[in-house]
Amino acid sequence: MKYDPIKEILGKVVRISPFLRKLFYKVLGLMFLREWHVKRALHAVVTNHPIRSMFDAGTGFGQYSYYCARHFPDLNIRAVDVKTQQINDCSAFFSGAGISNVVFAVEDLTLPLHSNEFDLILSVDVMEHIPDDVTVFRNFYQALRNGGFLLVNTPSTLGGSDVHSPGDKSFVEEHVRAGYDETEIRIKLESAGFLIEQLRFTYGRWGTIAWRLGIKIPMLSLNKSLAFFFLLPLYYLITLPFTLLFMYLDYRADNKTGTGLLVTAHKS
Questions:
Q1: pTM of structure
Q2: Strand pairing partners for 106?
Q3: Three-state SS string across the chain, please?
Q4: N or C: which end of the chain has fewer CB within 10 A?
Q5: Are 171 and 155 in contact (CB under 8 A)?
Q6: One pLDDT digit (tens) per residue for the chain, 268 residues
Q7: Which residues span the domain enclosing 76?
Q8: Within a domain: residue 139?
Q9: How many domains does the chain have?
């Protein structure tokens, strides 16, 4: 399934008005389990360490920068993406909303553009799109100040991207890798200089069911026909209570395995 065309359609819709973009952020925060896990990890790092600046590496629609700007108003944020349209949309929305502690820019993460600038780098579902991930991890290390933190959220090889065997194709065609296993991401981050603080599996048994009910089935249906958009309210009326319950169970669980990985590392 190609995800970018759907993202482009969503981008056009939320570009219509600030209200629609704020509503879109709320829907993302509710329906995407990874946001639950990432926001918890963000809160733990920012509230327990002297974090003054953040680098949102691959900001997309800007929902994490929006969350951090609202909840941590003293935090200075630089949010970047390779897609000019998304950066322009985010910049216009944040400016219109009077949010002044976020700066947006078009950047390529494989280029060493920053050195000793940030206390926190956030990378959510970005690394699976980048072939030269080792270079990016090294650039992240260079961009952090001593004692700074890196949060990486990515699919795992234990079914991430809906890949369960060598012959399976990624659910998202834009992915250059299905995900990471625990050993691979440890080795790549440590070779860049990072010290791993925590590696947590997300989307365990219950989270995987929730993802299929709440995200996969609707996305596949929309990818086949946009007419399904008009059936979504009825679909979610039936499935949403079960989806949210399963998401909560995953959020509270200590998953021994899962289709997602959330890694917290720091620069000594």
A1: 0.91
A2: 81
A3: CCCHHHHHHHHHHHCCCHHHHHHHHHHHHHHCHHHHHHHHHHHHHHHHCCCCEEEEECCCCCHHHHHHHHHCCCCEEEEEECCHHHHHHHHHHHHHCCCCCEEEEECCCCCCCCCCCEEEEEEECCHHHCCCHHHHHHHHHHHEEEEEEEEEEEEECCCHHHCCCCCCCCCCCCCCCCCECHHHHHHHHHHCCCEEEEEEEECCHHHHHHHHHHHHHHHHHHHHCHHHHHHHHHHHHHHHHHHHHHHHHHHHCCCCCCCEEEEEEECC
A4: C
A5: no
A6: 565 666 677 777 778 899 999 999 999 999 999 999 999 999 999 999 999 999 999 999 999 999 999 999 999 999 999 999 999 999 999 999 999 999 999 999 999 999 999 999 999 999 999 999 999 999 999 999 999 999 999 999 987 656 555 555 555 556 678 889 999 999 999 999 999 999 999 999 999 999 999 998 988 887 777 777 788 889 999 999 999 999 999 999 999 999 999 999 999 8
A7: 4-204+253-266
A8: yes
A9: 1
